[in-house]
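The protein record filed here.
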Amino acid sequence: MGKVYLVGAGPGACDLISVRGKRLLQGCDVLIYDRLASEELLAYAKADCEKIYVGKSTGYHSISQEEINHILVEKAKTNNTVVRLKGGDPFVFGRGGEEAQALIENNIEFETVPGITSAIAVPEIAGIPVTFREVSQDIHIVTGHTAKNEITDYKALARTKGTIVFLMAVSTISTIAEKLIKYGMDEYMPVAVIENGTTENERILKTELKDIGTAIKMVRPPAVIVVGETAKYDLVSKSKRTTVAITGTEDFRKRLGRQLTDRGYNVKEVCRLKVKANNVDISTDKYDWLVFTSRNGVNVFFDHLKEKKKDIRSLKNKIAVIGEGTYKALSEKGIYADYMPNIYTSRALGKGLNEIAENESKLILRAEKGSDEIYEHIKNYNEVKLYSVEAEYITKCRENYIVFGSSLGVNTYLDKYEIADSTSIIAIGEVTRRALESRGYGNIYCCKKPTVDSIVERIEENEKIQKTESK
């Protein structure tokens, strides 16, 4: 018998899922998800995971709740680890309680993993506090579906001095507003409507209770509606308005994303590249030098040694690396490179090795589609294409910046999408810059060094210039 996890996906942005929720998502056999689950989250599931869509929308249910319950039970019975991914939190208007009951009735083991509810997170990220001292000391979360069923006590709700957050209320908020005004709520009460909250498509509309019927015609679900004095606030840091889109492998995205987040930037992954080790035979004994052209190459090579149960003490070779990042990755394995060029490019690496070791044999350990510039000067070498890099997920960039960590990332992204004129382009180095120029793009900000630190410095410098010019 398998197990079911009722996992809250959070309010929309993929990085607002819990660490535990993401871990379960990466390891599950079956993923059952609704329409509020971010496509980015779905990309975390393993390649052979069975994905089942059971989403619902206003006026149209693709599948009934009873059928969803049945799927959960049947998939668990076949010894699967099942994740039921639900927008927000499973027990906040998510019908997670009904699903839990069904699992209990069928003796299916399950756990609930809380998610950040959109009722609080969406207004918060939009700069609207749901409570505020001396303004709002309580919060009411109401489903918009009650407008037809007359479950809500509108008379009591109209008299509240706190904040009211309506979920799933785009189609019913006009009726709700009329009832609230009828029972005494100020018709000029501030209202905020946040469409697609926490995502790149977020749109915020501010109005008053009496005008919500007209304003809501411009809104499409999903949307969170805030009614109350706090709805007039706009508590968003200017630095938080700057969003940086990242393209690259997981290691690169994590290192860069962590630094940018710590500095107050919003981070969006728009092109995930996956490193896939090739099935190759690597014999290093007959070479004087091992040459690494990337951090990924270092990691894949040492994974290969581990898989083949080869002790690193068997490596008698001198080692060359392309730059600081690769040097650091190697040092983390307990080995320090014998050579690194002053300029961190493939061309400089090849030229430098040729100068100091022209007659010595070299094994270049590289990516399948990496830069060929290393071969312009280097002699007496062989190569092993350790790994390939392939697109795992791509989405359109609408952010302030887009960062490219490789020429492969450039071509992978631009084969599907164009870059908007309003988006500033950051290239990690000259090879990446030339790849962008070959695709017709100019005004590219190129980093001083092809490192994550240099990318962050380049963005920070550009932000300071823009702030100075705007004064």
